[in-house]
Structure formats: C-alpha cells, structure tokens
Specification:
- The complex is a heterodimer of chains A (209) and B (103).
- With 209 residues, chain A is mainly alpha-helical.
- Chain A is built from seven helices and no strands.
- In chain A, helix 2 runs antiparallel to helix 6 and helix 5 packs antiparallel against helix 6.
- The longest helix of chain A is centred in the C-terminal third of the chain and has 34 residues.
- Chain A is elongated and about 60 Å long.
- The N terminus of chain A is likely disordered.
- Chain B has two domains: 69 residues; 33 residues.
- Chain B is flat.
- Helix content of chain B is 78%, strand content 0%.
- Chain B starts with 10 loop residues before the first helix and ends with a helix.
- By secondary structure, chain B is mainly alpha-helical.
- The longest helix of chain B is centred in the first third of the chain and has 28 residues.
- The chains are: A mainly alpha (209), B mainly alpha (103).
- At the A-B interface, helix 2, helix 4 and helix 7 of A face helix 1, helix 2 and helix 3 of B.
C-alpha cells in the first residue's frame, strides 16, 4: 500500500471508528456504565422497599450488620480505585512495570473485598441463619450485594487477564492500553456503586420496630 | 497524548485524593456511631448522604477523569445517573418509602 493509500485507509478507519471524537469502545463502556445505574438503582430501591418492612419472620439484615468489618471492606475497595488509577497513570507514562504492579495490587485488593463479602455471607447464614429466603429484606440484601460482588469478581478476572497479558508480552500494547482504561472505568464504577450501597444499605438502614 | 491528558493529576495528587476519600469514609463511620448515641435522625441521614455524594463526585471526577473528558461522555454518564435517580425516587415516593423514612 502506498503512503497515500495508507493515509486514506487510516483516515477512513479513524472516521469509521471515531465519528464522535471518542473511541467507540470507550463510548460503549460509558453507555454501558450509564445503563448500570438503572440496574443497581432497581436493586437498591428493592432493598429500601423491604429493608424495614415488618411482619416477616427471621433476622433482618440491619439487625446484624458488622459496621467495623464492612467499613474496612469499603476502605479496601476505595483504595483499589487508587491503585487502578495509578496503573493507568503508569501506563500513560509507558512505565510497564509500574502498570503491571498496580494492576496486580488492584486485583489483590478486589480479592480481599470479595473475601470479606464471602465471610460476611457465611457468617450471616451460619451464625444468624439469615438465608436468601428468610424474608424479603434478606432476599433484597443478598441479591443487591451479591450482584455487586459478581461485578467485582468480573473486574478481578479482567484485571488479572490484563496483568497476565502484560507479563507474557513484556508490557501492554496501545490496544491493550485502551483495554486497561476500559477496565479502569468499570472498576471505578463498581467502587462508586459500593459508595452508595455502604451509605444507604449499611449506615442508614434501620430494622423494623 | 491529547492536551486534555496533560491536566490529569500526578500520582502524588492521586494519593492525596485517596487520603481525602479515606478521611471522608472515617467521618461516615464516626457519624454512624454518633447517631447511635445522640439519635440525630434526619440530620444524620443528610450528613451521610452528603458525604457519600462527595466521595461519588471525587471518584467520578478525578479517578474516572470525567472532568477531563469530552462533554458527550459527561452527558451520557450524568444522563443515566439522573434518569435512574428520578425513576427510583418516583417509585419510592409512590410506594410511600420516602414518607416513612423521612418521617
């Protein structure tokens, strides 16, 4: 291909994929995250509807929350947003080792958060006998926090995939650099959803009187 | 690298932002225990929601770089958020949850 043809080809490619001035995959991620507000909004609303509605048997989530424990979990997830943005920053400076290290740190912090959630669920089920079907408040709690945990788990898998690619290839290419940015957006989104859940579900919940 | 990216925070600034977020989280937890003692009620809810909103805005603005992005992205993101808040506020109001918790 001649230089001119190559240039035309590049321009056509550029125009096809960036007619909005924003890389299409990046715009797609923002639209996806925007739609996720509606998804988590429904789950949070469901919890608010049932969290202190009396008349049902069994333990209510608000009666057994371990606030110090959940505060530490929240802190861990919040700090994972820091390590994520440091990974992105390192890659933008072409510091591949730094990017890899911070990616792994983010995945590790995400795993710690998930471990905390598994421990919390285990304790609620075995010690307090609050299962998914105990009452509507328990169902709403498990569905909401469970879906959030699933999002975190998917994020950890994506982070570890990028980390593995970076290790195998000795760094992330430009294409994978965009992937890191997209995973970063997803990860921060998961964090802001937890910011809302921590306040609305844990700190502001009151059991039925 | 675009000119927009030049204004992104430095790693040192990111650490400072994270420290700020950690302090806000600590205040939130402190508010929870203060409310148990003093039963602040609506004031506690208002302060906790305000602190949560501050954390939300800081993460979205600085960590997600929304304040450095093109306006189209801001509109998509804010649009989804405002739509979700409006929709579920209507649902919660219609089902009486807002009145019960507010009272």
């Amino acid at each position: 291909m001649s230089d001119l043809a190559h240039d035309v080809g590049v321009d056509a490619h550029h125009e096809e994929h960036e007619s909005t001035g924003i890389e299409n995959r990046k715009l797609g991620m923002w639209v996806f995250l925007s739609s996720e507000f509606l998804f988590f909004g429904a789950l949070i609303t469901n919890y608010l509807l049932y969290s202190n509605r009396g008349g049902f048997e069994g333990t209510y989530p608000a009666e057994i929350y371990d606030i110090p424990f959940t505060s530490v979990s929240s802190f861990v997830l919040l700090m994972s947003s820091l390590t994520m943005v440091l990974a992105h920053n390192a890659l933008s400076r072409n510091d591949q080792n730094g990017a890899r290290t911070w990616l792994f740190a983010t995945a590790a912090l995400g795993s710690v958060f998930l471990g905390g959630q598994v421990f919390e669920f285990y304790e609620f089920i075995t010690v307090y006998e609050m299962t998914l079907s105990t009452n509507p408040a328990a169902s709403a709690f498990y569905v909401l926090t469970g879906f959030h945990g699933t999002h975190v788990a998917l994020g950890v898998i994506m982070l570890l995939s990028l980390w593995g690619i970076s290790r195998r290839q000795g760094g992330l290419s430009e294409r994978h650099g965009l992937n890191l940015e997209l995973v970063g957006l997803y990860w921060h989104f998961v964090d802001i959803i937890w910011i809302v859940i921590f306040t609305v579900v844990y700190l502001l919940s009151v059991p039925p009187v | 690298m675009s000119s927009e990216e030049h204004s992104h925070p430095t790693p040192g600034q990111y650490w400072k932002i994270a420290a700020f977020l950690a302090v806000v989280t600590a205040i939130e937890v402190a508010m929870f225990y203060i409310d148990r003692q003093l039963e602040l009620g609506f004031l506690n809810a208002a302060v906790l929601l305000a602190l949560s909103a501050i954390k939300f805005i800081v993460v979205v603005g600085w960590f997600m770089h929304v304040r450095y992005e093109k306006p189209l992205i801001n509109r998509f993101f804010a649009g989804g958020f405002v739509l979700a808040c409006a929709l579920y506020l209507v649902v919660l109001t219609a089902l009486g949850v807002v009145a019960i918790r507010g009272g």
